[in-house]
Amino acid sequence: MLLNYFQTDTDPIAPFESNAPQSLQERLPLAGDRCSHFSSRQVQRTDPFGDISKGQTLLSTPHCRLRYTASRALRADRNWPSPDQGPNPSGRGSGGAHVVPVAIEKPPRIFIGRKHYDGPRPDEALAELLNTVQRQTLRFFWEFGHPTSGLARERSNTTPHVVTTGGSGFGIMAILAGVERGWIGRRAALDRLIKMVCFLGQAERHHGAFPHWMDGDSGRTIPFSQLDDGGDIVETAYLMVGLLSARQYFRGPDAKERVLRSLINALWSEVEWDWYTRGSEALVWHWSPVHGWAMDLPIHGWNECLIAFILAASAARHSIEPDVYHRGWAAGRAFANGRSIEGVRLPLGPDHGGPLFFSHYSFLGLDPRALRDRYADYWHQNVAYTHINRTHCVRNPGKFDGYGADCWGLTASDSIDGYVAHAPDRDLGVITPSGALGSFPYAPAECELALRHFASRGDRLWGEYGFRDAFSPSTGWCADSYLAIDQGPIVVMIENYRSGLLWRLFMSCPEIQIGLARLGFSRRPKAAAATS
């Protein structure tokens, strides 16, 4: 029934508004209901531009609805506010069904004045320091976004045609923060998001799930590894968090906003979360149209994948049973902990805490404040996780020069030895700015010290898209790269620390509240307050 409202109502959010007709509110499914009445049926959908699309089924061919709606979106307004937006008159890249005719040569600039090539000043007021870091980092997603798809490129220093699914979800949330801060125009952001979603609607999907990497021109899958050449349910989850947050942000009556919401709902509804259980009590990370389930990687906790289970339980179609969460995710050997590490009690995860992105990726949209289930209080979990990581760097058992109370943050990033998931039990002497800056909500005073230290390192660490990916204070090595999955948490988690914006948006999704309830999550009476 929830899906039926998404498919039939002109505004898919309308049934959940406080002023919605009582009959609609009463008819929403309750938490715990398997929603067996979510079935395929013929619908008559009102087109946002006055036409009627009749007789389309909810289980029609995967992309036809999106192509239909996307074509309407592109005809909605011929007076595009930016010269680089809108239909592509040259037809560049029109080599097949996967290409969307909205390619642009160069994305619009963020109107924020000069780029801060000289770096932020370590002694300036915190608000200005945060503004500088967020704005400059945001450029990675806005100015460096792929010119055809608008999606986030994987990294700055190689393979410019490769776009990343999860990093694009992070980038969408970063763009929303930029709009809210006044650095990006609302209309320009809306056009960019429509461009992205139209592209995604015609890109390759694998039982509704996107691959880890795609070609930014064609939308075709780029293998992440030999066997990983199909759907990645975790990267898809990160993308869906960004899309759902955008759906909640652009809730106005404008035709384009309504089209964006409709397109996002179509993508969201077509992810076959239940397919990725392989009929078992575990969510399986990958499926390949060539190799099938050969990677054989069921997801057990604790790690960065919590959000995939929450989305899978929240879906109106293809949702998972709660047992997949309790007997799959919560059955991991590194799940329950409860011991004291570095003098801090750690509810979940390996003894040394692991890389900091475990406390970032799932929580860019999922608000851990006051969130709990039978296994943990997730605010306490993430605060403990952060302090264990920092305390390790302060104690510095590896005796790396430069580590200290103001120089810490171990997480996955580029390294002297390639890409490495740095953690207390895998410490190579490499600090990743995203590690500390993405932890701002959990340890604001300690993160501010790290931010001011990073700022003091000058233009060696600072560049066109903010702080470079990583550095080694003991050897003098500094990465020449920026990575989408590291840049995104900087912008988004700083914004959550400052305003809670992305937490509010994602948690306002009615289906997410239903999914959390199905899995047994609840809220503590009084939320832990984030510093503004």
UniProtKB/TrEMBL annotation:
InterPro entries: Glycoamylase-like_cons_dom (IPR019282)
Residues annotated as domain Glycoamylase-like: 298-510
Pfam families reported for this sequence: Glycoamylase
Region (Disordered): 75-98
Protein name: Beta-glucosidase
